[in-house]
């Protein structure tokens, strides 16, 4: 995967390190013909070559910017409107920024029960009311308690690494941490585009190496029927 591969670097072998700056033999120095003549400037060529060989830092840009959001369970109980306790945490646009954030935040297994953690394309709020999300829906997979960490990471890598054939359909993903289980949902734009949704669902299961059945619920159904909403697609 593109994001994972960017974290790896080829380390030099001990032989390469040893031969990187070999020490000159004493007889080579003594017998060298490269004795500077009077008035000759020494060292310019060497210093200029060192400067030209320096490689400037180039971050690995992602195709889209992404934002992490967090809905704190302790804040939820004090709010009347759903989503009013949700806060954006950090927006990233490079591979390096992603890993810097991911490696310094709690993973789902360490989050308190009732917490919701999101990663959505920048400027898309993880709410049904968002104009981009309004006509969409979500695929959902359920995991045992503290068992979603790896799948959450693979989901993030597949999204930001643009691994989905219909990646433009994807809004983002959320992990819901509850007392007895955890759920990861993948939100998409156009719920009625059955072919695109089925493609995304199948690819997601492949990325996670999952054999579990999962369903797709339209946001419109969830708004009207709440927990009574039924899966429109199942794979």
From TrEMBL:
GO cellular component terms given for this protein = eukaryotic translation initiation factor 4F complex
Q: Which PROSITE patterns match?
A: IF4E
UniProt superkingdom? Eukaryota
Annotated Acidic residues bias: 30-46
Which is a GO BP term held by this UniProt record?
A: regulation of translation
**Keyword tags:** Cytoplasm, Disulfide bond, Initiation factor, Protein biosynthesis, RNA-binding, Translation regulation
Q: Which InterPro entries match?
A: TIF_eIF4e-like, TIF_eIF_4E, TIF_eIF_4E_CS
Q: Name one GO molecular function term.
A: translation initiation factor activity
* Ranges for region Disordered: 1-54
Gene3D superfamilies recorded for this chain?
RNA Cap, Translation Initiation Factor Eif4e
Coiled-coil segments? none
The family classification in the record reads: Belongs to the eukaryotic initiation factor 4E family.
This protein is called: Eukaryotic translation initiation factor 4E-1
Can you name the source organism? Linum tenue
